[in-house]
Amino acid sequence: MGDEQIDVLLFGLGAIGSFYAFILDRSKRVRLSVVARSNYDAVKTKGLIIDSQNHGRHTVTPFRVLKTPAEANQTYDYVVCAHKAIDQEGAVAQLAPVIDQDRTTIVLIQNGVGNEEPFRKAYPRCTIITCVTWTGATQVEPGLVKHTKSENMQIGLFPNESRKDDLATEQTRLDTFAELLTAGGTVFQAIDDIQRQRWEKVVWNAAWNSLTTLTLLDTQRWLASSPEAMPVTRRLMREVIDVGRACGVTTLQYDVIDTLINRILSMPGIGSSMQTDYKEGRPLEVDVILGYPFRKSKELGLDTPTLDTIYAIVMGVDRRLRDSWEKALKQ
Description:
Blueprint: E1 6-11, H1 15-25, E2 30-35, H2 40-46, E3 48-52, E4 56-60, E5 64-66, E6 78-81, H3 88-94, E7 105-109, H4 116-122, E8 127-133, E9 137-141, E10 144-147, E11 153-157, H5 167-183, E12 189-190, H6 194-215, H7 219-223, H8 229-246, H9 256-265, H10 273-279, H11 287-299, H12 305-330
């Protein structure tokens, strides 16, 4: 591994973003800047505190703590996006001042599918690394993140037609990011079939995020709530898989339903990030979890009645939350 400095900007300093800020900052090569919003004052004055069951308690002191990307007044080698995907187009526009398409690699650590498309449209020459994380973390107060033992991530390249004759550069940028994760001591795998991983995660999120939010029950209580709960959950998962396969992810198999159901049954009852957002009165991460599969199902002429119904109801809940959120911002 080389020893040249790598400028990294982390955009979205929630629980997951904070955890991976800590991981990246452990590399001696990284000069880390972060964009913080609600926790800006805490991180600016005290640093970012990570209390991890795997790594212990650490304080991260970023090179720069910013309120907006434009404030950086520079471009970066890696722009790591860990923000909630509730306004992907808006995030793409905000990041324009820090992206040099010949230099910058964009890294997406987010739930959902279709996340990469707005970035690819706006920045066609950028390398995009897309990630699926199964890491458990909660920001218990501004600037303080509790991390459980749950820690794993898959990373891979998003296709880049502008660099199809320069695959070596794409691979080098992926390898360099993998080296930074390795230096940070985290668990991850670099894989070719990353879209299958993304769709498997969205099968999980489409079910548990929506159903725990609409019922305000944890996963175990939801499944025990009626004889219909398990069949509804399985139908929703299967319909999302149908969409993924129709989108060309043919390696996505129906046996993932049993895998995910067995995983949830082996765990204590859990809520979801969407349920937490609902309880906090925040807009919901609907579009990349339910909206993209819904729209693709219509484009492809698929019959997805369970997905259609769940999506419509969650959108109604989200509309109420956004109306309240926008009203509060104007006061």
